[in-house]
UniProtKB/TrEMBL annotation:
Chief localization: secreted
Cellular component, GO annotation: cytoplasm; extracellular space
Location in or out of the cell: Secreted
Signal peptide: 1-16
UniProt cross-references to Gene3D superfamilies, sorted A to Z: Cystine-knot cytokines
Gene: Tshb
Alphabetical UniProt keywords: Disulfide bond, Glycoprotein, Hormone, Secreted, Signal
Name of the protein in question: Thyrotropin subunit beta
UniProt GO MF annotations: hormone activity
Binding partners and assembly: Heterodimer of a common alpha chain and a unique beta chain which confers biological specificity to thyrotropin, lutropin, follitropin and gonadotropin.
Entry's family note: Belongs to the glycoprotein hormones subunit beta family.
Residues annotated as domain Glycoprotein hormone subunit beta: 21-125
């Protein structure tokens, strides 16, 4: 193997780890409460994209630290609160949601992320929509 090929291979592996396509992306969340008259469509940002993952066939031979299942997750986030219209007085009309400021490739934290990708579409409205631009 030539030294140029080895250096190119090492550069490619290093660069591919840092050039992941994980970034804040626009997303619409649909929020509704049973007691309220409307469904609220909220424009926000989430973390989405590709992260390098290593999964070896020799899992039993390697340390767990050598295997990584990275996901695109929040590096920095803030919470905003929206008011759901058409709620009766006895129902709190507020909904807080995360806004991605910056993202990173890392382990999925179940404290603030849904780490399972569902096949069922759950982000929709069953009531008339109101748009919320934050």
């Amino acid at each position: 193997m030539s030294p140029f090929f080895v250096m190119s291979l090492l550069f490619g592996l290093t660069f591919s780890q840092t050039a992941s396509l994980c970034a804040p992306s626009e997303y619409i969340i649909h929020v509704e409460k049973r007691e309220c008259a409307y469904c609220l469509a909220i424009n926000t940002t989430i973390c989405a994209g590709f992260c390098m993952t290593r999964d070896s066939n020799g899992k039993k031979l390697l340390l767990k630290s050598a295997l990584s299942q990275n996901v695109c997750t929040y590096k920095e986030m803030l919470y905003q609160t929206a008011l759901i219209p058409g709620c009766p007085h006895h129902t709190p009309p507020y909904y807080s949601y995360p806004v991605a400021v910056s993202c990173k490739c890392g382990k999925c934290n179940t404290d603030y992320s849904d780490c399972v990708q569902e096949k069922v579409r759950t982000n929709y409205c069953t009531k008339p929509r109101k748009l919320c631009n934050m």
